[in-house]
Design goal:
Layout: H1 3-8, E1 19-21, E2 25-29, E3 32-37, E4 41-43, E5 50-53, H2 68-79, H3 89-101, E6 106-108, E7 114-116, H4 121-129, E8 136-142, E9 147-155, E10 158-164, E11 176-180, E12 185-196, E13 203-209, E14 225-228, E15 234-237, E16 240-243, H5 246-261, E17 270-275, H6 283-289, E18 301-310, E19 322-326, H7 334-347, E20 353-356, H8 363-369, E21 373-381, E22 407-410, H9 411-424, H10 436-449
Parallel strand pairs: 8-17, 8-18, 18-21, 19-20
Antiparallel strand pairs: 1-4, 2-3, 2-5, 6-7, 7-17, 9-10, 9-14, 10-13, 11-12, 11-14, 12-13, 15-16, 16-22, 19-21
Helix pairs in contact: 2-5, 5-9, 7-9
């Protein structure tokens, strides 16, 4: 940006714009080139600094193959979109533009979920009704994140809001939130006071304040929404990606990359469902199941929930994606899990994890309730639901508290998630008899020990 264009930018947007680079970045100030960064990040521009790039072979940082430089840029764009339950407009608009640009078929179901991999309801049902033993792999990720809706203006400088989804509960007063309409990001505000839910586990209502009359105070309160805001929508420190809402835009990104890589491959029975309002009870997923479309299937359907889930012992950040054995509500399909476990051992032998992710429930629970075979894959998440559970930059309060903090994930875990998604769509996987290999091993062990079973006296 130039000083003149920066000065012309509305003040409410100056904290949102910046430059994103994956080169050695230096600022030239009084004739001196000062190294700022040599990894991918976003810097807010300054009208007093001239930005220059000096590109050399050594300046590039290696990134995971499936994310790469250009796809890392796409991830940053996606993570920069504001969102909240029922106010996923910005994310879905970005997704629509991406899919149209890449000529990836999709359509919108009656509840606003995006169905990727079919151009219409008719094509979707046609795929489901094909007679085949090969299951349709239905990958699911949600486009919302805990946030608030405007309720009423209390004064020109105060807005009352209602929260949706799990949130921090400590050190809330003075925290920064971003505010957006359905069409654009508007700016930031400060939380003046808040009320918790009766159980005390999340925010229920807050009053936002501005030091001067809000520049968009003429807009209806109900048209506004928002969420916690930090130094930037997304930034990177080495291999850690910090952002306002990794959960579950990382899962959305994985589905988009899966279909991007599928463009040159045909006749792969795979669908992506990008759902709405997951944070308040799987509303978008339930609405999709209630259409009755999946119930018309003449072939197996396997629902695969892709989540960004709270890090736990045995599901640690940077050690690979998690083969999710279940969530807080239920365990998942044992046969399908056996296939996924074998694939993880083959494709990520030293960089995957396996456990029940009982830090919360996911859309696989909803799929199970509707009678579908289910799987889950998770990327371990730091500071789940913007709570300062693991610490890090721009976090409020003490580490381990439920104070506002940016979420963060490890780039290699995202790469591993995409690897497992691609492995799951391989042809001729043993879906019909996933335990065959294991039974053969059991029989071999029995054969070796059969003579020892003889001669028992009782």
């Amino acid at each position: 940006t130039t000083p003149s264009s920066w000065a012309a930018c509305p003040p409410c947007m100056q904290g949102r714009l910046g430059i994103e680079l994956q080169l050695s970045v230096k600022k030239r100030n009084e004739g001196k080139a000062i190294l700022l960064s040599n990894f991918n990040t976003i810097f807010p521009p300054s009208k007093n600094v001239k930005w220059t790039l000096e590109q050399t072979q050594d300046d590039f940082i290696s990134t995971p193959d499936r994310i790469g430089f250009m796809n890392s840029s796409l991830l940053n764009e996606l993570l920069s979109q504001p969102t909240a339950p029922f106010r996923e407009d910005h994310v879905l608009r970005w997704v629509d533009q991406f899919l149209k640009k890449e000529k990836i078929p999709f359509f919108v179901d009656p509840s606003g979920n995006r169905v990727v991999g079919a151009s219409s309801e008719k094509d979707y049902i046609k795929l489901l009704r094909q007679k085949s033993s090969e299951p349709v792999r239905l990958f699911m990720a949600h486009t919302d994140h805990p946030g608030f809706h405007g309720q009423q203006w209390l004064s020109p400088t105060e807005l009352q809001v209602k929260w949706y989804g799990g949130t921090p509960t400590q050190n809330i007063e003075g925290a920064t939130v971003g505010v957006f309409s359905r069409k654009k990001f508007l700016g930031t505000a400060t939380i003046k006071k808040s009320v918790l839910t009766p159980a005390g586990t999340s925010l229920q209502e807050s009053v936002l304040e501005w030091t001067l009359p809000c520049p968009y105070g003429d807009q209806p309160a109900e048209s506004l929404a928002g969420a916690f805001s930090f130094r930037s929508p997304v930034w990177r420190e080495n291999d850690l990606i910090y952002t306002q809402a990794a959960d579950d835009l990382v899962g959305v990104f994985a589905i988009l990359m899966l279909f991007l890589n599928l463009k040159k491959r045909r006749n792969i029975p795979v669908i992506g469902i990008l759902t709405r309002a997951e944070e308040v009870g799987f509303i978008g997923a339930i609405a999709h199941f209630e259409t009755g479309w999946l119930q018309q299937a003449r072939r197996p359907v396997l629902c695969v929930s892709l989540e960004t889930s709270r890090t736990l012992p045995g599901a640690e950040i940077g050690k690979g994606p998690v083969v999710r054995l279940g969530d807080r509500t239920t365990v998942f399909d044992p046969g399908a899990l056996q296939v996924l476990s074998q694939l993880a051992t083959t494709h990520l032998p030293t960089s995957h994890q396996k456990r029940i992710m009982d830090g919360g429930s996911c859309e696989a629970t909803a799929a199970s309730a509707y009678g579908f075979r289910t799987l889950g894959i998770s990327v371990p998440l730091g500071n789940y639901h913007n709570q300062n559970l693991e610490g890090g930059p721009d976090s409020r309060g003490a580490v381990g508290s439920k104070s506002p903090a940016p979420e963060f994930v490890h780039s290699s875990d995202i790469d591993g998630l995409i690897t497992l998604c691609e492995a799951l769509i391989e042809k001729n996987l043993p879906w019909a008899d996933p335990w065959l290999r294991k039974r053969k091993g059991f029989k071999a062990e029995l054969k070796k020990s059969k003579s020892l079973l003889k001669g028992l006296q009782t």
